[in-house]
Design a protein that fits this description.
The protein is 0% helix and 49% strand. It is mainly beta and 122 residues long.
Length: 122
């Protein structure tokens, strides 16, 4: 059974770059047909899809966050590293990684990490 575990800094200052790590166990991240998605939930709000990286290395991002977002990977460690640049206080949220057969805000994701809280504050 695949498991996903997010890890991050907890607190980031405005204008800095937020870097998270999503570690996948139980399956290779290059297994065909899987998309690894990055999602967040700001306090008091719903889930917001940020982007994906799939088994072939292809990426896709939400238009509203595309200019500040990137997702890289380390296949030797079975990890993804999503990054959000020039963060603002409104980027404060619980950040999740999730796996499914698609990479968009309308897709269903079968496996989720527990999430990691990120606060943007000086």
């Amino acid at each position: 059974q695949v498991q996903l575990q997010e890890s991050g800094p907890g607190l980031v200052k405005p204008s800095q770059t937020l870097s998270l790590t999503c570690t996948v166990s139980g399956d290779s991240i290059t297994t065909n047909n899987y998309y690894y998605n990055w999602i967040r939930q700001p306090p008091g709000k719903g889930l917001e899809w940020i982007g994906y990286k799939n088994w072939s290395g292809r990426t896709g991002y939400s238009p509203s966050l595309q200019s500040r977002t990137s997702i890289s990977w380390d296949t030797s460690k079975n990890q993804f590293t999503p990054q959000l640049r020039s963060v603002r206080p409104e980027d404060t949220a619980i950040y999740y990684c999730a796996r499914g057969y698609g990479g968009s805000e309308s897709d269903f994701f079968q496996s989720w990490g527990v999430g990691t809280q990120v606060t943007v504050s000086s």
